[in-house]
Each structure stands twice: as structure tokens, then as C-alpha cells.
């Protein structure tokens, strides 16, 4: 799933190519991708793109005050086309969900792999009309997101750190992959209760959060959309690397699987050398 660093890179990539250009056609191929219907997607046609923004994992293309907002979900992606194919795309069982064409003949496709169709596209006058945007917590890379604010969010939070970091209403933009990376950098168990953190641990987690995301953004900045997935994977230390060697201590990276996801961690770095039980709602083995 694209997270804050990848969506931020997509924002910059699209801003360089869309701002000042006119949208001439928006073609939904998979009707299920559209989550709003009034105004219709055709209302974007003839409008000039003025700015591209990011709200958490949401990508916002502002066209003269009308917003095309997308959430790529788990299996969605954006593909830039220097030259779009002639003729409208044909509906079918392929991954193509929506196409946006510019006056220049360029444009982009939104695609989604797999059978779970969660890619979402909205056309709204204000992004705050989208429930997922309206409920977003603060952006962890914002200038005003200081350690005191972070500590306030965690104070009284009874959930485990892994779940708290992934909660978009608590902190915007962090998903499964970067929560693993942040906790590894902070040397903390994913199942440690957020409310149990000492001031020193809170400071360490805050630093890991900011540095991990900032470094990922820096690695992704300037890359073409097609290279972002590979860059994300290459920069991950523990996520998706179960069975490999921890680059910090040399221990074997382990995994805890859930019904629809999995987390990876290093026992030596994060849990005092104790493995986590690989079952739902697992705890440290006694």
C-alpha cells in the first residue's frame, strides 16, 4: 500500500506535470472506483489544474476549485503516460480503473490489481467533504507536529503501538510497512501499550517516526511514478523481510501473521530477544 512517502512523491511528480495544464477528459473504466457522483467526473473537463496536494494517504488534484481526490488503497497505483492511447479504454476485467487526459495528449491511469476493489476516487468542491479526509489526524511531518503534540496523542491511548501508529485519525499517513520500520528504529515491540511509554521512550519513538518518514520522502523525491514501489521496498529494513538478517544486530527477522496482514520485527532489537507468538492478538511468549 502506498503510504505517506510514496504519496508525497506522487504529489510532487504530478505537480510538475499537471499544474497549468487543462484536463480534457476523465474516463472512469471501473464504475466501482467512483465514490461520489455529484458533481460528475465530467465537471473536471475544461478546467486547469492549479495545485496538487496530499492529505495523509489521499492525493488531491485541484482543478480551478474542483477536486479530484484519490486513495490508492492496498493495490492501487498511478501510471503516467507521455502519450495516451488513441480512443477510449475498453471496460473489462483488467486493472485499469480511471484515465485522466490532458490537452497535451499526456495523462495518467489509475489501476488496481487483485479482486478486492478498494481504490477510491472522489470529485468534490472541498476535500473535507470526504469522510476519510475529514477524520485524519495531524501530518507527522508538519512543522507544528512537535514532540509535545505527539506525546499528547499517545497519552491515555490504550492500544498497542502498532495499531496506534496505523490509525489515520490519530496520525495521518503511516501504514503497515512504515509502522514496522518506525518501531524497529525506536527499538520497541509492536505490542507495547502506547500509554505505557516513559518520557524517554516517547521521545525515542517521536524521533524514529520523523526520521524514518523524512528519510523515505527524501529517497523518493524526484523519482518517476514507476520507480517508487521498488524504491520503497529497497529502503525497508524489516518490513517484508521475514527470514532475512536484521541489518542492525544480525538476528533473524520474524513475522506475526493476521487474517489480512502481517508485521515483521527483530526480536533482539525490539522484544528483548523473545519471539512474539504468531497468532492474532499475540503477546510476548512467557
Which short descriptors sum up this protein?
single chain, 286 residues, alpha+beta, 4-stranded antiparallel beta sheet, 20% strand
Dominant shape: elongated
Poorly predicted runs are 280-286
Described by strand count, sense and barrel closure, the largest sheet is:
4 strands, antiparallel
How many distinct beta strands?
10
- Spatially, the strands of the biggest sheet line up as 1-6-7-5
Helix/strand/pairing category: alpha+beta
Number of helices: 8
Mean pLDDT: 93
Explain the overall architecture.
It contains eight helices and ten strands. It is of the alpha+beta class and 286 residues long. A hairpin with a 2-residue loop joins strand 2 (49-55) and strand 3. Helix 5 crosses helix 6. 37% of the residues are buried.
Amino acid at each position: 500500500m502506498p503510504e505517506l512517502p510514496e504519496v508525497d512523491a506522487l504529489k510532487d511528480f504530478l505537480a510538475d506535470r499537471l499544474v497549468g495544464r487543462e484536463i480534457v477528459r476523465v474516463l472512469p473504466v471501473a464504475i466501482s472506483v467512483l465514490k461520489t457522483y455529484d458533481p460528475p467526473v465530467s465537471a473536471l473537463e475544461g478546467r486547469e489544474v492549479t495545485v496538487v496536494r496530499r492529505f495523509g494517504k489521499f492525493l488531491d488534484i485541484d482543478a480551478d476549485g474542483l477536486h479530484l481526490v484519490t486513495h490508492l488503497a492496498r493495490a492501487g497505483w498511478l501510471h503516467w503516460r507521455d502519450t495516451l492511447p488513441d480512443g477510449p479504454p475498453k471496460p473489462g476485467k483488467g486493472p485499469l480503473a480511471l484515465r485522466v487526459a490532458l490537452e497535451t495528449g499526456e495523462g495518467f491511469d489509475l489501476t488496481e490489481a487483485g479482486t478486492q476493489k478498494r481504490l477510491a476516487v472522489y470529485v468534490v468542491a472541498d476535500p473535507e467533504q470526504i469522510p476519510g479526509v475529514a477524520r485524519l489526524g495531524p501530518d507527522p511531518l508538519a512543522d507544528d507536529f512537535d514532540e509535545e503534540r505527539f506525546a499528547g496523542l499517545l497519552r491515555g491511548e490504550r492500544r498497542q503501538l502498532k495499531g496506534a501508529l496505523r490509525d489515520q485519525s490519530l496520525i495521518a499517513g503511516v501504514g503497515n510497512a512504515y509502522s514496522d520500520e518506525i518501531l524497529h528504529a525506536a527499538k520497541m515491540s509492536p505490542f507495547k501499550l502506547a500509554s505505557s511509554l516513559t518520557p524517554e521512550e516517547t521521545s525515542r519513538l517521536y524521533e524514529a517516526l520523523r526520521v524514518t518518514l523524512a528519510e523515505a520522502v527524501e529517497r523518493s523525491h524526484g523519482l518517476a511514478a514507476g520507480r517508487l514501489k521498488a524504491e520503497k521496498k529497497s529502503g525497508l529494513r524489516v518490513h517484508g523481510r521475514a527470514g532475512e538478517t536484521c541489518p542492525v544486530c544480525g538476528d533473524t527477522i520474524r513475522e506475526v501473521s493476521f487474517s489480512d496482514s502481517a508485521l515483521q520485527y527483530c526480536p533482539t532489537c525490539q522484544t528483548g530477544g523473545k519471539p512474539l507468538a504468531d497468532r492474532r492478538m499475540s503477546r510476548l511468549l512467557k
